[in-house]
């Protein structure tokens, strides 16, 4: 039974009561309460409404068994609207849906907040009985290493056509990433804030690489020795080439600078061709032949990235 709660102002009549899932934060339904229904809800720990159609108290789930177990209760600033956070014992809506407002396919990403709290609670648990606690006990380096391992496994599965395994690896990576955030003392909401600030940049990034992918798809029409099987392959090639051109090629060019000078720049050309062949080796549906074709391809993609990067900032 919840105690020491503010008293709603029932002098205004029936008060609206919003029901929200404690874990997913999904709004489940809206009902109405009088003082008797409110007090019964707090006493029994199960949501009770005043039914306007039945003209009596109505415990949600009294017929179906799909009760709404009370976890938290909040009152708005005017004391005339109620918010109940509950644990739903089955579907809430009479249609069989979990919510009277949202379809079953509605975004359930808010559940990650619940998972974050579970991870936090298990941080100090017995490592012999909790996998999560065992990760924390091994130290930050081990947690970070695990995130790296899961990321590699996800990339490997991304190259295959087995969606179930890919989703499993994505879930593993996300879980261990949340563990690492907790170990660093950084809340998920801090990451969300950064993403919200970067939304315009992210839109520009998406537009940029969609356009580069379109160029990749067009290149085989004008350049023999290059083959691209579909837009999804083109997009993957565009993303990998963008990563290589941004992070890998500059390092290789610096390391090989003396050789490039002695070879009058020819070695730098070899690096460009090698990177294209490397992409072809790992991306199904992308094929290259010869030396000139991948060299021209590399230059075109680099120029396209630079120009589109400028206009999509």
The main sheet orders its strands as 2-1-6-5
- Model regions low in confidence, pLDDT < 50 over at least 5 residues: none
Gap from first CA to last CA = 55 Å
Order of helices and strands: EEHEEEEHHHHHHEHHHEH
What is the domain total for the residues?
A: 3
Shape: elongated
Number of helices: 11
User: Total strand count, please?
Assistant: 8
Largest sheet: 4 strands, mixed
Radius of gyration (CA) equals: 28 Å
Residue share in helix: 40-55%
Query: Structural class given helices, strands, pairing?
Result: alpha+beta
* Estimated share of beta-strand residues: 5-15%
Oligomer: single chain
Mean pLDDT: 87
Describe this structure in words.
It is a single chain. By secondary structure, this protein is α+β, with helices and mostly antiparallel strands. The protein has three domains: 79 residues, Roll (Ubiquitin-like (UB roll)); 86 residues, Helix Hairpins; 113 residues, no CATH class. Strands 2-1-6-5 form a four-stranded mixed beta sheet, with helices on one face. A two-stranded antiparallel ribbon has the order 3-4. Helix 7 runs antiparallel to helix 11. The longest helix has 25 residues. It is elongated, with a radius of gyration of 28 Å. It starts with 14 loop residues before the first strand and ends with a helix. The mean pLDDT is 87.
List the helices and strands and how they pair.
Layout: E1 15-21, E2 27-33, H1 35-44, E3 48-51, E4 56-59, E5 68-75, E6 82-88, H2 111-121, H3 131-137, H4 140-158, H5 163-184, H6 188-197, H7 199-218, E7 226-228, H8 231-255, H9 257-262, H10 266-282, E8 286-288, H11 292-311
Helix pairs in contact: 2-5, 4-5, 7-8, 7-11, 8-10, 8-11, 10-11
């Amino acid at each position: 039974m919840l105690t020491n709660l503010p008293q709603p102002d029932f002098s205004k009549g029936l008060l609206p009561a919003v029901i929200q899932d404690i874990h997913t934060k999904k709004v489940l339904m809206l009902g109405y309460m009088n003082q008797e229904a409110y007090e019964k809800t707090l006493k029994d720990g199960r949501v009770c409404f005043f039914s306007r159609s039945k003209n009596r108290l109505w415990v949600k789930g009294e017929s179906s068994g799909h009760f709404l177990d009370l976890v938290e209760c909040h009152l708005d600033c005017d004391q005339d609207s109620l918010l109940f956070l509950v644990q739903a014992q089955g579907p809430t809506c009479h249609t069989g849906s979990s919510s009277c407002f949202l379809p079953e396919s509605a975004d359930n990403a808010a559940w990650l907040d619940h998972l974050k709290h579970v991870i936090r609670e298990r941080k100090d648990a017995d490592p012999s009985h909790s996998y999560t606690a065992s990760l924390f006990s091994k130290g930050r380096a081990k947690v970070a290493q695990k995130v790296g391992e899961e990321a590699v496994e996800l990339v490997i599965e991304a190259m295959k056509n087995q969606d179930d395994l890919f989703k499993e690896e994505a879930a593993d990576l996300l879980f261990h990433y949340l563990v690492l955030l907790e170990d660093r003392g950084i809340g998920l909401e801090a990451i969300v804030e950064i993403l919200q600030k970067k939304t315009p940049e992210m839109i520009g990034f998406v537009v940029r690489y969609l356009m580069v992918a379109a160029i990749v798809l067009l290149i085989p029409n004008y350049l023999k020795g290059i083959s691209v099987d579909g837009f999804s392959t083109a997009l993957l090639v565009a993303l990998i080439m963008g990563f290589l051109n941004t992070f890998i090629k500059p390092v290789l060019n610096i390391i090989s600078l003396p050789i490039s000078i002695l070879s009058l720049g020819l070695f730098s050309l070899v690096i460009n061709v090698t990177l294209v062949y490397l992409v072809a080796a790992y991306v199904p549906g992308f094929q290259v032949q010869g030396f000139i074709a991948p060299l021209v391809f590399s230059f075109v993609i680099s120029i396209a990235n630079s120009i589109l990067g400028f206009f999509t900032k």
